Amino acid sequence: EQFGFGLRQGESEFQSALNDGLATVRDDGTYQEITNTWFGRE
């Protein structure tokens, strides 16, 4: 599943923090938990 976020140009620090946070929740299973809770199992 693909998704995107619109950011202002030049927001590289925020982009890095966002990417790190997304990687963390994917790696630790939080993303899948949220997906299962709100959208059902895949």
Report on the structure:
This protein has 42 residues and is mainly α. It has one domain (11-42). Helix content is 62%, strand content 0%. The chain contains two helices and no strands. It is elongated and about 35 Å long. The mean pLDDT is 91.
Briefly say what this structure is.
The chain is mostly helical and 42 residues long.
Major sheet: none
Strand content: under 5%
Total strands: the figure is 0
Helix-strand pattern, N to C?
HH
SSE class: mainly alpha
End-to-end C-alpha gap = 11 Å
Q: What is the tally of helical segments?
A: 2
Level of helix content?
55-70%
Overall pLDDT metric: 91
Coarse morphology = elongated
Low-confidence stretches: none
Radius of gyration: 13 Å
Number of domains: 1
Topology record:
Elements: H1 12-27, H2 30-39
Features:
42 residues, mainly alpha, 2 helices
